[in-house]
Amino acid sequence: MAKLNTRSDETDAENKVRQVRQVKGMDSSLDRLIHERVRLGILSALAVNDSLTFNELKGLLKTTDGNLSVHARKLEQAKYIICEKDFDGRVPRTAYQLSPTGRDALERYLNHMEALIRATRRR
Amino acid sequence: MCSFCGYAVVLYNEKCSSYHSHMPIRAEPTPLHARAMENLKFIRETMENATSFTAVPGWGGCAVGLTGLIAATLASGRQPAVWLTIWVLSAAVAGVIGGLAMRRKARAAELPVFTGPGRKFVLSLTPPLIAGALLTPVFYKAGLMYYLPGMWLLLYGTGVITGGAFSIRIVPLMGLCFMALGVAALWLPSSWANGCMAAGFGGLHLVFGLIIARRYGG
Asked: Which domain holds residue B94?
């Protein structure tokens, strides 16, 4: 339990540091949170859809329940995505939406990638 | 000792790398810009796969439906050759109207028609239509004119369903209705053939065109 709390505190601290850097425009480094493939896929898919369910994302990214769940939770903790849980009849349904913070983060990541390519072409 | 197969060697680098093909060869590191391009490609592909083709034209569908109704009225009670000519011309006109309407809607929404989901939609829709076009002269020569409406409706429905898999949910439903009507046309008396064509290429296009136009904007 104590170990779990420590990990949660660490994640909160990382998120706060990231948010402060973003607000101050200091963050010129690569956003490691998005850099992972599944998380990048989640943000990209949500960027072109108002909302996607857990199963839709799972099918789209061809990943497992556990894997998607872990990565989605990380994005949720960073407030990049919004998770909504409800019932479709008697079946529980989890839907995800991209938050404004997540959209900004994806845009910054895209700019970062484009800048890298431009820098290499200039050489 | 080789850490991969346990082969006893004294000089790891010399013996193992020269005698063991399973030894990993250190790959060249991927350049940074190549990784960036790979990531951008991944983002684009994910976005394409996650998008449905929403440029199916509603009002265009209505116009195609009107063409079908006009063709059905003109073709009613005509000689087989004239009947066929009217419907083939009507299909060509409807194709042009549908294509232009789709391009117009896609442009308005800044959606590409020939890349991503648009490309998949077009590539899935066209093969059954081409099959229908190729089978038409065969049926005509074999004297199977009365089966043409059923075959056309079935194949058009098939194309709409397969194309609709990459589009809004109502499109595959429209395809299903076309297929059901096609099956009916194959089994109903030949006097119903033109009526089935009017109901399908006229009525279904009009009804679904109106629904698409109202729900999905034009």
From this structure: 58-216
